[in-house]
Amino acid sequence: MQCQIVSETHTGKDWRQNQEQCLKGKPATRHAIMIIILIFCTMSSPFAARTSVEAVEEGMLLAPKFDAHGLIPVVTTDAATGELLMHAYMNETALLKTLETGEAHYYSRSRQQLWRKGATSGLVQTVQQLLVDDDQDCLWMKVKVAGTGASCHVGYRSCFYRQISPGEGDSATNAPFVLTFTETAKTFDPVAVYGDAPNPTQL
Amino acid sequence: MQCQIVSETHTGKDWRQNQEQCLKGKPATRHAIMIIILIFCTMSSPFAARTSVEAVEEGMLLAPKFDAHGLIPVVTTDAATGELLMHAYMNETALLKTLETGEAHYYSRSRQQLWRKGATSGLVQTVQQLLVDDDQDCLWMKVKVAGTGASCHVGYRSCFYRQISPGEGDSATNAPFVLTFTETAKTFDPVAVYGDAPNPTQL
Questions:
Q1: What global pTM score does this model have?
Q2: How confident is the model at residue B13, as a pLDDT?
Q3: Residue A186 pLDDT more than 60?
Q4: Domain ranges within chain B, ordered by starting residue
Q5: Could you say which residues from 68 to 97 on chain A have a Cβ atom under 8 Å away from some Cβ of chain B?
Q6: How far apart are CA B203 and CA B193, in angstroms?
Q7: B30 in contact with A, Cβ within 8 Å
Q8: Nearest CA distance, A82 vs chain B (angstrom)
Q9: Yes or no: is domain B64-196 CATH 3.10.20.810?
Q10: ipTM associated with this complex
Q11: What whole-number distance in Å separates Cα of residue B44 and Cα of residue B60?
């Protein structure tokens, strides 16, 4: 997984496609190229190699696992209240920027670019604590949010502003699962803040 | 996304492969098959269709978005303490089983099958509240855990038992980011509980 180095314009998929094209040469050439790539990737990664399950689970070196798209999921909670604010993704660049600056940076899948949280809205997230899970394929980030304290582009404080009410179907549409709102009002007007910027929600 | 119906033995990938094979016929046949599939998927899904951004973000019907593998990420927290316990995935079957039984069911990516949490360890998670985020591509599940209250297969209470200490590199390996443990002891012995079952952590 160390090879899935990505940047704002260079995704893991691109990298693999380039790699596959390179590897279409003769066997000897292919092996030489593979060795060079492996050495390059090992040397260039700022994170520890994932050499054993024991080292990943019980070790003291950060060895994050980025997925096939070069991303790792991030669970972001309010450091003061513990409330889950949002669930997003980082690529390697975003994780390094976050560690370097102490401000939350993500990778926007809809815009396909590095995303400094709060760049438009001012709702910057300052990292208070950053944890990693057992197999190091997920991060938990505790933050302090600037401004109104909101983190949701729809205007609510948390992105999780609706709960599922099992057993309460909708008679009009026959849909078996309905939602009820847990936040009663938006904390800001998204149109005023984001203007006509594309909505990140995708169908 | 309504078409990505999966079960324990029938993943979204299999479904798409079958679909692609079906669609290799003549254009007229292909179109007819596509229409039938779309009607079937729309009729058979227990969730609402994702017809508009407004309906997904502000509506009151559950219309979850499963990814290309038929999965949706789930953030599981302790209902009493708010602590993040784990981050896992559900497929449609797991979500329906969870809603039906009130006990957490996930989809195990390592074992590629439905996973009733606590089936082996007894650490069953009883759902107290289930929320969905703005674009309905992530779930937040608040649970009460049976037994020792742990949720991590390594033996710790939370899967997130290590924090990243930026700026504190490891001089022996030149690794720039080291981890420190936030839990001081395991709550159970994973060898005694899981025996020689395969470890879900993958490199």
A1: 0.78
A2: 41
A3: yes
A4: 12-58, 64-196
A5: 73, 75, 77, 81-84, 86-87
A6: 23
A7: no
A8: 6
A9: yes
A10: 0.77
A11: 20
